[in-house]
Amino acid sequence: MFSHLQDINxxxxxxxxxxxxxxxxxxxxxxxFGWAGIVYIFKMELFFIDLCPLSIQQSALTSLxxxxxxxxxxxxxxxxxxxxxxxxxxxxxxxxxxxxxxFVQSVTLFFSGILVDRYGPKMIRGIGFAIYMFxxxxxxxxxxxxxxxxFLVFTLIMIGSQFLVMAVYQSTNIIFRRxxxxxxxxxxxxxxxxxxxxxxxxxxxxxxxxxxxxxFCYCIxxxxxxxxxxxxxxxxxxxxxxxxxxxMESLSEKSRISETSLEHxxxxxxxxxxxxxxxxxxxxxxxxCSPFYILHVFYLSVFQLKLWYYVGTLPxxxxxxxxxxxxxxxxxxxxxxxxxFGGLLVSPVLAFILDKDxxxxxxxxxxxxxxxxxxxxxxxxxxxxxxxxxxxFCIANSLPVLKIQVLSFLVYMIVRAFLYGSHGVFIGAAFxxxxxGTLFGIGMLxxxxxxxxxxxxxxxxxxxMGNQPLGxxxxxxxxxxxxxxxxxxxxxxxxxxxxxxxRFETS
Length: 507
Hints:
By secondary structure, the protein is mainly alpha-helical. It has 24 helices and no strands. Helix 14 packs antiparallel against helix 24 (485-506).
């Protein structure tokens, strides 16, 4: 019906897809990263209060029921001014829900990548939309009596959201030929900023609206935006395959002479992306087992573990640092949410670094496979900056000063935007487009398995370390230092390949 709009050579279609994709990803992709906002609501609604000692349960329920007939909703929600009612057991259960949700998110990215490669984005988005809506409607009916269903609700939300967003990522990687790195990084910036959705839930909740009403309104907005994106802008699978084939044929023709010289040079080293797609050395297995990919996945996994652990423990950390002042906790959670929205603002910086030659109008020195090498080389400064900022983030987060946490909020936002944006761009630049979804998904799957370690780390902290965070933070900091080997390795490989290229040009 809308096939006449889907023209890869049409600037109008590209702009519509870009803005539609950003809005779609912003609304329904990584909202669980705003966990601190929804935890505030869950604690105010006394979810899992039954896990706490009887004295805490009685105090919380008495405060909830005391003189409610003479109080407005806003007055009731200010009843815990000097601290949330709760206990370590309640925090542990909420942390477990977050861990399960984030693990499911990354595992789903793996399977959704394979499914999108095979069946196309339209079909996968249709399935994902149904699952996502079911999960969101389930959230609307949550209360403290059925709080254990939050495991199922957030599992459905994560599965549906990753089906939706993976279809956008794959389509973006194919549609935007000239500014692929820029478009992909901005889409990932929207993914980072989607955490602001649950902050808006919290702000609206504090204004006196119920969680049920907020969720219903959210579902209506997502229903409209997601369906417009799927029906009007997402191309069918056969069209995407045709565009991919056209690009491969164009690159093959432009790079034929360069490939011949590379193959006949006795000093040749294996290029980052081999020219012959059907050769055994270019198999999916060879890419997965390459040091290039293994080190990248290790780097991604360690940094994601730090980010997940930070978000999952943030409400508890802020409560301790504020001396159990609920108003301060609420204010700092709001600041954190606003900082997370900055991911969409940081992503153009990442886009400029990754596609600076094209954005400045400079022509590539080479064509075909070597131009892919240049895109990979542009990832080196991004990896370096991300690593340095993550080290700063670890240090700021470990300091027991409440005001310094604002700095950690800002650095967290930049690290997260650069980490996921560079992951998507690096996979697209260093490996064949036909394996993009699978390689992207495998990386997220391994990172999810590593990120799930945040829950045992939280248990170690709360049970064995007296709920003092420093010990676990030092463990994660050591892993971050070890992950520094990845940007060094990418720099070494790209420098070596550049020397080879210069040798070929002068010979």
